[in-house]
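Amino Acid Chain and Its Fold in Token Form
===========================================
What this section holds: a protein sequence and its matching fold, both as plain text.
Structure line: whole-number tokens from a learned vocabulary of local backbone shapes, matched to residues.
Purpose: to set a sequence beside its fold so the mapping can be learned.
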Amino acid sequence: MTAVLEVDELTKHFGGTAAVDGASFQAERGAITGLIGPNGAGKSTVVDLVSGLLRPDSGAVRFDGHSIHSLPMHMVSRRGLLRSFQVSREWPRFTVMENMLAAAIDQPRAAIWRAIFRPGPLRRAQERDAVRARVLLEEFGLMAMRDEVASTLSGGQKRLLEFARLLMPAPRMVLLDEPLAGVHPMMIDRVRDAILRMKARGVTVLMVEHNLGMVEQCCDTVYVMAFGRVVATGTMSELRTNELVQEAYLGTDD
């Protein structure tokens, strides 16, 4: 496999504190890559930097061979790299189906002049969006709730809706920042299966997660962060016996 995402010596300071301090790793195309480490290791900041929410102080981020570390988040997303957040984000007053259709709208197609002077292509695109939305809602077990207002969903259902929305524009890669945050334990298996379905669709996934069982079940390769940098890499089974990983999570007497 080839790397679709390459992160090289990434740094980010907040005041005098280095949240990310020379982090380097890569994500292989079509695989699920895990990013783990204790609280404060810099994992979520890395996701913010890669997605364009923050700009790094130094270092490089390349997606499909192109530099993206200077691009804002909306430009990164147009290249096919989307992200989720620790707290699932939905349009709370929209129905589940309306959330899906809103996620499919792109700027050129939404231009008013296109709707006025070329209604036919716009209508056909909307019909295709509706079909894709129904397919994804069925796949994620949310079709029966398509007319429910999104704010009434449980935490796990909102997470599944977020995943389905991420797939509406057919991304090439997604960044999942703690996908189990706010999810009831009874929904963990459904969230795990949803992430595995992303991979089955050919979507590359980078996942930050504290639940190591989930990481072991989903991830092909795992990177461990501590103090803003990557300190180890391997499969989860290999990393469980790695002394550096044990020190990063448990600390030492020294």
